[in-house]
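Weekly modeling sync, notes
Attendees: S.R. (lead), two postdocs, one rotation student

Agenda item 3: backlog of single-chain predictions. S.R. asked that every request posted to the team notebook include the full sequence so nobody has to chase files. The rotation student volunteered to paste the first one in as an example of the format we agreed on. Action items at the bottom.

Example entry:
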Amino acid sequence: MIRRRFLDGIKRQDWLAVVTDLVIVVLGIVIGLQASQWVQTRQDVETERRYLKRLLADSNSNVGALKQAIGVNDRRASTLSSLAAALENGGPAPSQADLSNVMCRWFIQPAVNVRRGTYVELVSSGRLALLRDEDLRGRLGLEQAAHDEAERLDLLAPAVFQVAAPLADYREWRIVGTGAGTGAGASGVDCIFDVAGMRTDRRIPSVVAQLYRDQSTHKAFRQRELDAVRATSARLSQLLGRPS
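Predicted structure, as returned to the notebook:
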């Protein structure tokens, strides 16, 4: 109808009617675009909030996982420090159970189940721009970098394996527990150490010191990751209006 009136106005040279119809058309287009943009903006805000909640849940989970891993590194380092002191001054050594927990499995770092799925999804889908807060995006990037650095520590394992080779002369492996099928207790493989023999080997204090450094290094990198996660979590809590 407007198109017909517009053409009729031109034929009659009724320029007022032509301009009026043209303004109506332009206003209709502008209003339609604004309404569409408003709907899209509202959807983006709702989507962003869902992502913020998921990121906060990931962060809270990661804080617990990283603190647990750091605790394992701390306990292992403490046992190694006690062993180093015992080898140096002849004092009491850690228990065989403590030595087993550290030196039979020193090369198995505690599993850290860090949840990165939400951040990876945002990056891979191109939706990271939905997070309007520039500070948050920066913190997420720093957190990812700290995580990648901690994961690369696995590259050090072969060198530490080589360093720890002299321990094999003083380590005896054994099967422990009641065996499969009895249901009376756990079974597996454990080891005991000849601490007296280790005291006579000048190589061992250096080995223990380097194992201690390995645990301290893992702790330091995981602590850096934990600090980054906590910074992200604090910002997410602010954006969601929750106490950090």
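Discussion: group reviewed the output briefly. The longest strand covers residues 171-177.
Action items: rotation student to repeat for the remaining queue; S.R. to check formatting next week.
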